[in-house]
Amino acid sequence: MSDFNKTRSEFHLPEGLIYLDGNSLGPLPRKAAERVASTITAEWGDMLVTGWNKAGWMAKPTDIGDRIGKLIGAPAGTVVMGDTLSIKVFQALASALRLRPDRKIILSDTGNFPSDLYMAEGLVGLLGQDYSLETVAPEEVEGAIDETVAVTLITEVDYRTGRMHDMKRITEKAHAAGALTVWDLAHSAGAVPVDLTGADADFAVGCTYKYLNSGPGGPAFIYVRPDLAESAEPALAGWLGHEQPFAFDQNYRPGRGIERMRVGTPPVLQMAALEAALDIWDMTTMADVRARSIELTERFIAGVEAACPELTLATPREAALRGSQVSFRHPEGYAIMQALIARKVIGDFRAPDILRFGFTPLYIGEAEVEGAVKIIAEVMDGKLWDREEYKRRARVT
Amino acid sequence: MSDFNKTRSEFHLPEGLIYLDGNSLGPLPRKAAERVASTITAEWGDMLVTGWNKAGWMAKPTDIGDRIGKLIGAPAGTVVMGDTLSIKVFQALASALRLRPDRKIILSDTGNFPSDLYMAEGLVGLLGQDYSLETVAPEEVEGAIDETVAVTLITEVDYRTGRMHDMKRITEKAHAAGALTVWDLAHSAGAVPVDLTGADADFAVGCTYKYLNSGPGGPAFIYVRPDLAESAEPALAGWLGHEQPFAFDQNYRPGRGIERMRVGTPPVLQMAALEAALDIWDMTTMADVRARSIELTERFIAGVEAACPELTLATPREAALRGSQVSFRHPEGYAIMQALIARKVIGDFRAPDILRFGFTPLYIGEAEVEGAVKIIAEVMDGKLWDREEYKRRARVT
């Protein structure tokens, strides 16, 4: 078993805070500040433009992509960093639709993160010609896959409830119907073991600022199945995805394999923070993280259910069916979460009634679970929330 | 006149280097390291997810957009930061095409930066239905605008030669033909006075890591003319461009005005560096920068032409017709630039034969101009370059 006290010591965690919101924004890896500072002064400052080669900035999107690939079952050379998750959703969908030119339907589910649905909506709006986005309830998505579907767009782990789709089974179903799959790993990468190769996933996208701890606005990633990569035509045909960016050709020729999914100049400072965050992942394994995550979430569910009968579990009780978060429902969930935050238990509220808590074994242990249960019980027992509190603006997912 | 010794002291400039490549990557503002460090430790580290509101991260794309707006003649509330320039080109073009649904042509010129052309090519490929990208020589672009053109895509200042298009005249011509304009300000913002309002430009996009000195991979910006902003439909319909991102609606409703051009989570660390860089712009005016830039470029042209008859000026001799760079042609330009770089005069080579030198008065003065002229003359006089040197990979534009 990995030493989670060791990984924990790699994070800056404010004194007295029980931070169960790493599924929104991961905490600061202690070495990130130093890494970014050195990128700024020793690289940007002293190397100036030569940093693109001398400091390896130009190769970072694929170098880092390979490191993330190890956490999601993707071989070297199949993952590249850049842009935001929303852009990567658009990019994956546009490529998938071109690979199924006779089909017009993107199939998604109502449990998907809204930005995925919006990007799909924007894409079909742009394409016109009877293209459409169809959404069904999460439990109906598998049954809705048929020969009319060009591509499925599914977030593996539901951002509100933590319910996890069966990637392998849905992908098999999609392939049997001749459809492709785009998997959003926002709440999977670093949270649960992902095996893109084993599941035969076609495209996958994800962000790095949640369980991977890259910091606010860290770059997204995209995976393309190796045997599709050379035939996937990029719709976002940026110069860094060109076969020879520095030839400055007038015409676009896609780069080799995953390189073609690069678009513009990569965010070097954000990538430096991400590299420091990934170093911590070298100290553990996804299997250990998952085992520990299940221990922690089981303990949390048992504790809250024993103490707070008014809170209804929204997350699947069976560990295999959920990600690394636990959610409860309560009609006054928003006000309850405010009361918890005031008492330094940081979770998230998601409309209309979800209290969401993320468990990330890299820095969360039994003490935090017990502490959180105790405070949640106090707040619920004493009805310590402001029942009149009107909804203020919620925070970033 | 602004005190350029003062702005110069705000930059870290490596000893002995004559850096004439700020039009590729601007140098490090001394306060950027501290600003980013404080964003990392005091904001990300201590505020964690609450930084989105408490530290104002969520509002930074428009707050910073307003500051950049002042440098490009754009009123408050018309510019927003995010993504990369290539993505912003796509976004502007897609919106423009929707505003001219009966027209199918994007008109550009062969002097445009290749990524702009690639993104346009990717977009028309995606749209199909007879959409096309047409390119003509830069000097022919004005004459090629007619009633078939939906939108022009023009980079104001040519990245190779520094030749500057007349934004106002071309925009007038476009409007007279019922076309819209997308202006790429990559080599304009912070380089020359830009008056988007005065020119009645429809869309403008640009990057911040050249003359604005935001560092490698700094975010791009997009401007939409205020009276178009509410009717411009975003094709890249990301959640942060939604009217209420935190309502987590299933359907996209575009945000107000320029807010709808936001897509995904903004790069907070890169924005912190950009803010430090923009503070330096508060110490001067674009008019002073331009006046000084003309002095420096005139002096450089005169010096090189007097000393190096083998180098042919590629930049317009008339200052009003060029940006803030000077380029010369030579068949062995690549090898010559390597020889200059070895002697610590940093410029850029651009295929096939362009030697490119950027002049940014914020930190470049007569001493650098004279020093560069002297070394260029030595290299040319003594034929000090490796005439056999094969072309190695060039650097980022």
Automatic annotation (TrEMBL), chains A, B:
Belongs to the kynureninase family. GO terms for molecular function: kynureninase activity; pyridoxal phosphate binding. The lineage of its organism: Bacteria, Pseudomonadati, Pseudomonadota, Alphaproteobacteria, Hyphomicrobiales. InterPro entries: Kynureninase, PyrdxlP-dep_Trfase, PyrdxlP-dep_Trfase_major, PyrdxlP-dep_Trfase_small. It is an enzyme of class 3 (hydrolase). This is Kynureninase. Pyridoxal 5'-phosphate binds at L85, S86, F113, P114, S115, D116, T155, D184, H187, Y209, W239, T265. Its cofactor is pyridoxal 5'-phosphate. It catalyses: 3-hydroxy-L-kynurenine + H2O = 3-hydroxyanthranilate + L-alanine + H(+); L-kynurenine + H2O = anthranilate + L-alanine + H(+). It holds the Pfam family KYNU_C. Homodimer. Keywords: Hydrolase, Pyridine nucleotide biosynthesis, Pyridoxal phosphate. PANTHER family: KYNURENINASE. Signal peptide: none annotated. Its EC number is 3.7.1.3. Pathway: Cofactor biosynthesis; NAD(+) biosynthesis; quinolinate from L-kynurenine: step 2/3; Amino-acid degradation; L-kynurenine degradation; L-alanine and anthranilate from L-kynurenine: step 1/1. GO terms for cellular component: cytoplasm.
